[in-house]
Amino acid sequence: ERGGYKHFMLKEIHEQPGACAQTLQVLVGERGFDLTPWGLPPELLRSLSSVHLVACGTSWHAALVGKFYLETLAGVPCRVDYASEFRYREPLVPPSSLVVGITQSGETADTLAAMRLAKDKQALVGSICNVRGAMAERLSEVKLPTSAGPEIGVASTKAFTSQLVALLVLALAWRRARGEADEALERRLFHLPYDLQQALHTDSSVEGVAGELQHARNALYLGRGVLYPIALEGALKLKEISYVHAEGYPAGEMKHGPIALLDEDFPVIGLCPAFELTEKTLSNLEEVRARKAPVYVVGDGEHPRLREIAQRLVPLPRLPWPLLPIVAVVPLQLLAYRVAVLRGCDVDQPRNLAKSVTVE
Ligand code: F6R
């Protein structure tokens, strides 16, 4: 049942090209970027004033990336909340808002409660969900399916990248509804499964990093912009399956506190692909290096200064920025997996965690 893989997590990491292809196929197929079948015809999209994304854990990280997609590509204001925070305050939900619960299982108690609250506040309620007929879908008027297939490993991997695909499709469809379709990006998205296939080939260089990280007690993940949520996700993966304390931080915030922690025993993983913020991120990594902390980079393999400061570099291809988070998370999933295996952890059943959190 694990298809020759040692763990479900590794199998599911490798299923990502297919999971994202299938998600894209089901959501848009040959029809183009028109979400009418899912309850979001172009005239409805045009009438909406804002989006609010609510989720927990890894799905919340997807929401943080989704905010970049929706605001930058579709020009629609987007707010993101932890479902468990949204439900216990008095959130302002402006008229004509779309509130979307992002949830792999569709059964997370806090996410469902946040969606019910949004409904009480007269919002249009939607879901991005991986399980057909789950409660999140039943609560929704707008149902955007991810089609990652069953996810068994407790650590979410292929459901996450599929959520990112669904959010990008939503942003592109919204943009199209406003009469500003980005046809180049729409076409490029169909190539993503090949990019993910390439990203899986980083496993051999990731193994080298894992070997050096396995005895670490702490790790800091740094990223900027659309890669900051991926830093959070990399840190969460490492925490939950290998029990190494890790934090994700926006690289520019490091000097406002966490830099005080750094020394030769505090490895830093920097996300620094070729994008708008390469040089900004690089200068933060140089500050890390100056504190003698080991620097590992997932990023632009053709950047000479980056190669110089990185103790090891896991190369990422050059991609349009919206695809970077989807591809860059793959080596971080592999890294958490490799470290957990080296430390003898139970990868598919980490202690204290359940696959579906149906209690509050
Ligand atoms: C982490 C993980 C959790 C879930 C969270 C939400 O790897 O899997 O953080 O993302 O419990 O679950 P869903 O998406 O089912 O609502």
TrEMBL record:
Subcellular location: Cytoplasm
GO molecular-function terms, A-Z: carbohydrate derivative binding; glutamine-fructose-6-phosphate transaminase (isomerizing) activity
The keyword Transferase is assigned to this record: yes
Predominant location: cytoplasm
Keywords: Aminotransferase, Cytoplasm, Glutamine amidotransferase, Repeat, Transferase
A GO BP annotation: carbohydrate metabolic process
Protein name according to UniProt: Glutamine--fructose-6-phosphate aminotransferase [isomerizing]
Organism: Thermoanaerobaculum aquaticum
Shown residues in whole-protein numbering: 243 to 602 of 602
